[in-house]
Amino acid sequence: MTMKIPVLLLAVGLAGAAAFVGWGLYDVSATDPHLRPTNWLIELTVRRAVARRVSAIRVPPLGEPAQVERGLALFRAHCVACHGAPGVAPQPFALGMMPLPAPLAQTGREWPPAEIFWVVQQGLKMTGMPAWAFRLTDDEIWAIVAFLRELPRLSPSDYRAMAAADTATAPANAGAAGVGDAERGRTALHQYACVACHVIPGATGPQARVGPPLAGIASRKILAGVLPNTPENMVRWLRDPQSVDPPTAMPDLGVTERDARDIAAYLATLK
Amino acid sequence: MRVIAAALGLALAACGEPQSAPPGDPERGRLLLRQFGCGDCHAIPGVAVANGTVGPPLAGIARRVYLGGVLANTPENMARFIRAPQEADPRTVMPDLQVGESHARDMVAYLYTLR
Questions:
Q1: How many CB atoms lie within 10 A of CB A190?
Q2: ipTM of the complex
Q3: What's this model's pTM, rounded to 2 decimal places?
């Protein structure tokens, strides 16, 4: 009899979990705030997970005026819309997010630089925080970190004055060309939303059927119905689909040369 | 166990979109796909020696959103693409195989069984 109790508990637990999912009991709406314990658990999970992953990150010197200025330009281009700034509210859409984007003046005060760097670079799953790894260089992310460390010291009028003086435009991520890195390419499949339209072995996605499945793409003779399938043509197709086939539904996702090479290297493994 | 199965059943029942079968004879379409050599370029489940790798595989084609990357996937557009591919996309390597209207309709009827 005693042997049966753990089995019974396990069965009840599994049945409960299945019912929770199957009957749609969990409210996924962003108007329904997390319960206080859930919120506490999420914050703890994030802090612990980030702290565990930053040991290899070497923090460069931070705080040179030129670096902070560059960070300000990047912050204004990429962060302020969701996070706001001293005296500046986030955009209305960001106020509808659950969880709310963190106020970065507090982050700049309380978080170690390596952890801020990691979060900006990697993003946070199941929040609105995107990964910037494929959009910004490490130097650019460090510039943002340097700026965030100054942010808590800025009054709203200080920030307004800095923003008014900032005429620099955020530089584009050039991305050096080289030999394709298949593993990096596999990550890039998510970062350029390839999995939103294609089923791709080795990449988890919504099982979309917008474009053709890419299983066996390395053995396919023709790309997009129009081009011989060579590594160069794959890069060309990924970077500028409309120049290859004007009526195609495949969008130009602004893939850099380097990222296209890496994606092509991964796709070449799908025999 | 029955509760788990029921709950999962409920979850899965929500998946999959209803769709009425297009006109045409699917069984005849299957033979025609063979006769027109479609399998030389496409892998097509259920069609003998259809294992080509020139064009995309046609498994699940009924649920694909676009045809040839350019046309919305409807039975009418599929017949159109089969009959006059270059009209839909001038650069496509898919050849015009002079498929007649009723033949195309039967092929579409079969391809729409591939979900």
A1: 16
A2: 0.77
A3: 0.73
